[in-house]
Request: fold
Amino acid sequence: MTDREVVEALGLRPDDVERIKARVGAEIRRQMAAYPVRPLARYLPGVPVLLVDDGLATGLTVEAALEYARRHGATEVTVAA
Reply:
């Protein structure tokens, strides 16, 4: 999902956004292959979670982490920044 106003303010076209999404997706897959970790989802059901972020410039990262924790059954989510 993209924020249309931000995309327009940056002077990007839809094909620019799609190209960037493809590049970032490829980098994410590369890093996941290079640095494998156990899926966190198996540890979340029924437990409280503390998310710590070293900075909330846009809040997007912490929003994604909150959604992930809630979707996978965390009983309580606390955020510290």
